[in-house]
Design brief:
280 residues, alpha/beta, TIM Barrel, eight-stranded parallel beta sheet, 40% helix, globular
C-alpha cells in the first residue's frame, strides 16, 4: 500500500452529466459516507457554476451546508469557473480547495468557462487572490492536456509551457486532465517525466478519463514517474458535458482503491452499491 498517494474522489464529475436531478438529501447522505471512511484525501463534491450550464449542481450551496467534516480528515474541493464562483465558494469554511479548469485548447476554454485563454489567465490571478485571502488552495486542472477533438494545435510542449507560466502565480497544485480519454501510456509518461522532477515544489496530479479496460497501464505510467495524486469516480461514471457529445468516463475509483490497497473488497462493493442507489 502506497500511503503517500492521494486519492481524490469526484462525485461531482460523476453525476454532473446525469439529466435526472438527484435529490439534495441523497447527495448529502452519499458524500457524508465518503467523508466518514477516511480513505480519500479530497472529495470533489460540487461546483459553483451557473445552474443553466450544469443543472445537476444547482444545489451545491445546500449540499455543502449538510456535510459533516467533524470527524473526517478528508477535505472538500469545489469547482469554479470564474471570479463570481470563487467568491461564493470562499464563503464556506468547510471547503479547502477551489478547482479551476484551465484549458490548453482555446475552443474548450470558451465552451467550458465562456472565456478565452487570455481572459482565463487574468481570471486565475483574481481567483488565486481570493484563495489566499480566504485560506483556500487553488487546484488548476489543465484541461485537454493530452489532446482535443477540435483540431486546436496541441503538443506536450504547450502543456509544459503553461505549467511554467502559471506556477509564477504561486499556484501549487496542478492536475493534468485527459478530458476526452485520449491519453496514452506514452503521453502520460512523457508529461509526468518532464514536469514532476522539474517542479519539485508543485503537486502534480492526473485526472484521467478512460475506457474501463485501459485504466491500469495509465495509472502505472503516472505513478512510475512520480505522480502521487489521482482523481477517480465510482464505477467510472462521468465525463465533461461541455467537451463533446459522447462522454468518456472517469478513472474508476473502485480500481484505484483496490490497486493502492486503501480498503477491503466489502467496502468497495458497498461503495459501488451506494453509488448505484444514488443515481437510480
Amino acid at each position: 500500500m502506497n500511503e503517500s498517494v492521494k486519492l481524490i474522489e469526484c462525485p461531482r464529475d460523476a453525476i454532473q452529466g446525469i439529466h435526472t436531478f438527484i435529490p439534495t438529501d441523497k447527495k448529502i447522505k452519499y458524500i457524508n459516507h465518503l467523508l466518514s471512511l477516511g480513505i480519500f484525501d479530497t472529495i470533489d463534491f460540487g461546483s459553483f457554476v451557473s445552474p443553466k450550464a450544469i443543472p445537476q449542481m444547482a444545489d451545491t450551496h445546500e449540499v455543502v451546508k449538510g456535510l459533516d467534516l467533524s470527524n473526517s480528515s478528508t477535505k472538500l474541493l469545489a469547482i469554479i469557473a470564474n471570479e463570481r464562483g470563487a467568491i461564493a465558494a470562499s464563503e464556506y469554511e468547510q471547503i479547502s480547495y477551489l478547482g479551476y479548469p484551465f484549458s490548453v485548447s482555446e475552443t474548450f476554454q470558451i465552451r467550458n468557462t465562456n472565456a478565452t485563454i487570455e481572459e482565463s489567465v487574468n481570471n486565475l490571478q483574481k481567483i488565486q487572490e481570493i484563495c489566499i485571502k480566504s485560506n483556500k488552495k487553488l487546484v488548476v486542472y489543465l484541461s485537454m492536456a493530452f489532446g482535443n477533438p477540435y483540431n486546436d494545435i496541441w503538443n506536450s510542449e504547450i502543456v509544459l509551457e503553461w505549467i511554467e507560466k502559471l506556477q509564477v502565480f504561486d499556484i501549487e497544485i496542478f492536475s493534468l486532465s485527459d478530458t476526452i480519454g485520449v491519453a496514452t501510456v506514452e503521453s502520460i509518461d512523457y508529461l509526468c517525466k518532464n514536469i514532476i522532477p522539474k517542479y519539485k515544489n508543485l503537486e502534480i496530479g492526473v485526472h484521467l478519463h478512460t475506457e474501463k479496460n485501459s485504466w491500469k497501464p495509465k495509472i502505472e505510467a503516472a505513478l512510475y514517474n512520480g505522480c502521487q495524486r489521482f482523481d477517480g469516480a465510482m464505477l467510472g461514471y462521468g465525463g465533461c458535458p461541455m467537451a463533446q457529445d459522447e462522454l468518456v468516463g472517469n478513472m474508476p475509483m473502485e480500481n484505484l482503491l483496490e490497486h493502492f490497497g486503501r480498503t477491503n473488497m466489502d467496502e468497495i462493493n458497498n461503495l459501488k452499491r451506494m453509488f448505484e442507489e444514488l443515481i437510480s
